[in-house]
Amino acid sequence: VAPGLYVNSAKAIDYMEGECDDTGGLELRAGTSMAAPVVAGTAALLRQYFVEGWYPDGVRNPPRGFSPRVSLIKAVLINGAQRLEGIEDAPGVVSETEPYDVHQGFGRVELIRSVPLAGKNRFSAKVINRQSIGNRGHDQYLVKIDKSAGCSEGEPLSATLVWTDPIGSPFWQQCVLDDLDLYITYDNGLSQADNTNNVERIRIEDPPDGQTYAIHVEGRDLIGGHEYSLAITGCFASIEETQPPPICLDGEGD
Q: Per-residue pLDDT tens for 72-84?
């Protein structure tokens, strides 16, 4: 979601072609027609960020620029989205919201919490623009929390996986044709898999300094090979891509 209230929009004098009034051609408007352009503009700024080489440290360096895939832009937008604490049901009446409920989905888009920008925020980012994975394939990324560089207080570890699913057939009962899974393992283990969506996000609030997390991307059930994008933010110096240990799927193996 994005702000859609008190947003400057175009205004013209009624019944006069090509003429603006004394407000300079702008007026405050509200609605989804205001919120949608906020998200579109945010996506455009994210693309510019990567093309102009601002990744990974938030300092412009054109030689390291690259063209991000649509799935990466989507992953970064979702990865940095922040929870809405409440909604106003009526003037002065506010109800508390829950993560991922019908009021907010993944939350409110916020660029300053999505990508590093020198002098403006203090967290690290790792993005995977285009990574191939096969059926039953398994990629692992090791992240060690390091707050020694003065990371923002309470900065979460956030990882978001996005892929573009193949076109389905009419009356297809399954929600996705290619099913990839994202999960993080550490001392507390993991929960159940998601076989419904082509976006998966995991957020660990204020992880302890020195804790190591293994972020996994698994090709659970693919038609063939596939490509995914991954966005990771948090307090870390670097991320190591490692070979994961053998796993058993659907009861197979020892």
A: 999 999 999 999 9
